[in-house]
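step=encode ok
step=design start
structure_in=
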């Protein structure tokens, strides 16, 4: 199957890829390898979109990178869904993890 059919980057491109966002409007992307501070390539799943992102600190494999500035209390979006809220302001390029987001999974639905 081709990249267009699967949505997965070709092997040579995947080796360069640092982050993958699941949906176009996501506010975070997941590290597909350990990524050092600096510039890294990001892709959006099932999309031809590729862009460079600035990484402000090392992001371990499987952890999230903020793709946009998030205010304290603002929803964190992954898979096109709210996965949590920012515990404090999070700058674009920062690691997004349990120290700066709170899950909304078990909050009562109104």
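sequence_out=
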């Amino acid at each position: 199957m081709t990249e267009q059919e699967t949505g997965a980057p070709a092997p040579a491109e995947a080796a360069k890829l640092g982050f993958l966002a699941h949906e176009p409007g996501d506010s975070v992307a997941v590290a597909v390898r350990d990524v050092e501070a600096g510039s890294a390539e990001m892709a959006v799943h099932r999309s031809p979109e590729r862009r460079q992102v600035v990484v402000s600190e090392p992001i371990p494999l499987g952890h999230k990178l903020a793709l946009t500035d998030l205010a304290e209390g603002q929803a964190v979006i992954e898979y096109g869904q709210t996965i949590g809220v920012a515990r404090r302001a999070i700058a674009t390029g920062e690691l997004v993890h349990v120290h700066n987001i709170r899950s909304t999974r078990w909050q009562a639905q109104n």
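step=design ok
step=annotate ok -> The beta strands are 17-21, 28-31, 38-44, 50-55, 64-66, 75-78, 81-86, 95-96, 101-103.
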